[in-house]
Design goal:
The protein is α/β, with parallel strands linked by helices and 262 residues long. It has two domains: 134 residues, Ribonuclease Z/Hydroxyacylglutathione hydrolase-like (Metallo-beta-lactamase, Chain A, 4-Layer Sandwich); 108 residues, 4-Layer Sandwich (Metallo-beta-lactamase, Chain A), CATH 3.60.15. Helix content is 23%, strand content 32%. The strands form three sheets. The chain has a seven-stranded mixed sheet with strand order 8-5-4-3-2-1-16. The chain has a seven-stranded mixed sheet with strand order 9-10-11-12-13-14-15, with helices on one face. A two-stranded antiparallel sheet has the order 6-7. Strand 11 and strand 12 form a beta hairpin. The longest helix has 16 residues.
Length: 262
């Protein structure tokens, strides 16, 4: 299994050559040997980020959505409609955590995707939808992706959740946080299980409260920092990640060999 970051930027990043923080999990199909690709989030930059790697809509075999912000779901209209009209009605498998399945359609996609050539559609006309419980896992190409619920935003009595994933491989456990606040009561058990961590990291001078900030992550114990890669950067000069004990900032297009899945 290989993990490739098609972008490592924040929602508002305009760094040339970088895009929003969406990723590809890639593995060989055991039946054919062909490369299969699971797109982790499909933001509004996704078509350009994929094109920069020489890929397009037809190269995506499945999608997982972590939460409902545009830099993570804004490209689904492109992907779904292009597959429907240009891919002879192909419905790409879509894994979606159960709490966000309805608002994904009603609040994010319905306005631009509901009317098709036959009449009114819903999400199942455009994707092969599989809802996933927030304490469960989904299986793709033999890999079991465990859902990791984390808090992304707090507004009064309301929470916005984002759902990362944990994957067991022959090289150990991999944690991909998705967008999340630095809340150790929710993160510490996953940090302990993981052998490599890809962590949401904000670098703005004034923390927004929506993402784990570099200065917060720098307070982690050395044994956690030294297995952690950082991503989701802002358009400012980066702090010294390696000098602070992290593995570093992920570069756009960078790939990681995770080994065979368990």
């Amino acid at each position: 299994m290989r993990l490739t970051f098609i972008g490592t930027g924040s929602a508002f990043s305009t760094i040339p050559g970088n895009f929003q923080s969406n990723m590809l999990f890639e593995t060989a199909d055991p039946a054919t040997g062909e490369t299969r690709r699971l797109l982790f989030d499909c933001g509004s930059d996704a078509r350009w980020a994929l094109r920069a790697l020489g890929l397009g809509y037809a190269d995506i075999d499945a999608v997982y959505i972590s939460h409902l912000h545009g830099d993570h779901v804004g490209g689904l209209e492109w992907l779904g409609l292009k597959s429907y009209f240009m891919g002879e009605g192909r419905r790409i498998p879509l894994f979606v955590p159960e709490p966000i399945r309805r608002p994904l359609w009603e609040n994010c996609l319905k306005g631009g995707m509901e009317l098709l050539d036959f009449g009114l559609a819903d999400l199942t006309h455009l994707f092969d939808v599989e809802e996933v419980g927030t304490d469960e896992s989904f299986t793709w190409m033999g890999a079991h992706f465990h859902i990791v619920p984390l808090v992304h935003l707090r507004g009064g009595a309301y929470l916005m959740w984002s759902y990362g994933v944990f994957l067991d491989t022959e090289l150990g456990g991999m944690l991909l946080t998705s967008d999340c606040r630095f809340e150790r009561d929710r993160l510490d058990s996953w940090y302990a299980k993981a052998d490599v961590i890809f962590h949401d990291c904000e670098t703005m001078e004034v923390p927004s409260g929506a993402h784990a900030h570099f200065h917060e992550l720098a307070t982690l114990e050395p044994e956690i920092r030294r297995k952690m890669w950082l991503y989701h950067m802002n358009c400012i000069e980066r702090p010294d990640a390696q000098g602070t004990g992290f593995l570093g900032f992920v570069e756009p297009g960078q790939s990681f060999d995770l080994g065979a899945v368990r």
